[in-house]
Amino acid sequence: MFKTSTILGRRSFSASTFLKFQQLAGDQLKNDVNKTPLLSDITKEKWETTCEIFQKYGFKNDEVLKIVEKNKSILKHPANFLNHNIEFWRGFEFGQRQFQELILVHPEILDVKDYKHIANKISYLKYFVKTPKNVWLLLLNSPEILTRREEIIKNYFLYLEERMRLSTPEIVKSKVFSKPLNELKCRHIFLERLGLFKPRSPKSDPNIQTKNPMLYKIIDTSDKEFCKKICGISLIEFETFIELFNIEQEKAMNQNEEESDSDVD
Asked: 253-258: which pairs have CB atoms within 8 A and are 24 or more residues apart?
C-alpha cells in the first residue's frame, strides 16, 4: 500500500481526490507513479492543471489518466506548451472525435516541437489521400509515417496504387506504413505466385472489391497468421521464400547499380 504523499510529493491530493484517483487509475499507473522519478515530484496543482487543460478539449478524467499512463512526460510539460500542442493537432480539422482518439491512442504526438515539419508532412500526405479523415486514419494506424522521408512515402504509394492497384480507403485502414516496404513487396509477390492475389487490369476501378485478400489482412498480421489464415501454407515454406526473395532483391539492386555505373561511363 502506498501513501498519497509518496505519489504526489509534499503537496498531495486531498483524501477525496486521491480516492477518485485510485478508482480511475490502473495498477500499472499507480506503480509507475511510485517508482518513476519523473512522476514522484508532481504536485496536486500540476495534476489538476493538466486535467483542466484536457477537459477544455473534451477529455474526461479517466481518459487523461490513460494518456498520462502511456506518455508520462506530459506531466512535465509547461501548461502553455501542452495547450499549444493540443491546439496544434486540433487545427488539422480531423473532427472532434477523431482528434481525441488520435491523442488517446498516440499521446506521444503531444511532445512534438517541429511544427513546420509536421504541418508539411501532413500536407504531403493529404496530396495522396485527399481528405483530413484519411490523413487521420494514416496517423492512427501508422504514426511512424511522420518520421519517414517524403521519397520513401512516395515509393509506398507508388507500389500500393500502381503495382497492387489498391484504393485509398483500403490503404489508410491498414498499418502498412508501420512496416518496411520490402516486407509488403515480399508478402504481395508471394501471394501472386501462389495465385491468391490476381493483378488488376490497369483500366479497372481500384474501388471495386476483388477476391484478393484485403491489405490489412496481408500486412497487419504475424508471419504465422499470414501463412495459416491467408496463404494456407506452412511457416517454413514462407521463410524459405523470404530467403529467396531477399536474394532476388539483392541481385536486382546490384544489377541496377551496374547499369547506373555503365551510364556514367
From this structure: none
